[in-house]
Amino acid sequence: MRILGIDPGLRHMGWGIIDADGPRLRHVANGICNSTGDHLSLRLLSLFDQISAVIATHAPDTAAVEQTFVNKDGAGTLKLGQARGIAMLAPARAGLSVGEYAPNAVKKTVVGVGHADKRQVGHMVRVQLPGVDIAGPDAADALAIAICHAHHGAGQRLAAAVARARA
Fold first, then answer.
1. Does residue 66 have an active-site annotation?
2. ∠ at Cα 108 (75, 66), nearest 5°?
3. Of 45, 90, 117, 137, whose Cβ has the fewest other Cβ atoms within 10 Å?
4. How far apart are CA 49 and CA 54, in angstroms?
5. Which one is catalytic: 19, 38, 66, 100?
6. Are strands 2-7 and 62-66 parallel, antiparallel or unpaired?
């Protein structure tokens, strides 16, 4: 299964794609979408276009996005939420199911500790995807989200399939 992980951000939206075959994971691609434009609407459009191009190029089977955390700056949180909306809209528009994971759940899955820093996340992504060349911290986070979905999303899909079979 090919999984797209997205780390939402208004200026820099990280993305990472892995192939998961049971417990085996393989890196496919990763990068960062940098927003352009003078107005918020243009910046959001540029992110949508870029992540849509990633989806068209790499044809993932499913996607996962990090949930928004609330910080002290309400306006900043709202803008991050708008970027997260784009991160969910683009895969949904392409017909993909979109999983959502809290930042601590992603870190705990990849690093083993829910409050790991970006350096630790990047290191453990490199351990789990040997030979990967990571485009930056946002791309490392996106790959970590994809890894988290590979581990947790498979169980959710199996439970849904069993429920459908019983119906």
1. yes
2. 35
3. 117
4. 9
5. 66
6. parallel
Q: How far apart are CA 3 and CA 82, in angstroms?
A: 22
- Among candidate residues 7, 19, 73, 117, the one labeled active-site is 7
Q: Is the pLDDT of residue 65 over 60?
A: yes
Q: How many CA atoms lie within 13 A of 124 on its CB side?
A: 20
CB 37 within 8 A of CB 46: yes
The count of residues in the chain is 167
Q: Does 38 qualify as catalytic in the annotation?
A: no
Q: Is 100 a catalytic residue?
A: no
Q: Which of 53, 57, 51 lies closest to 28 in space, CA to CA?
A: 57
How high is the pLDDT of residue 70? 64
Chain center to CA of 152: 13
Q: What's the token pair of residue 105?
A: 């759940």
Query: Which member of 19, 133, 138, 141 is catalytic?
Result: 138
pLDDT of residue 162: 45
Least Cα distance to 3 among 23, 27, 34 occurs for 27
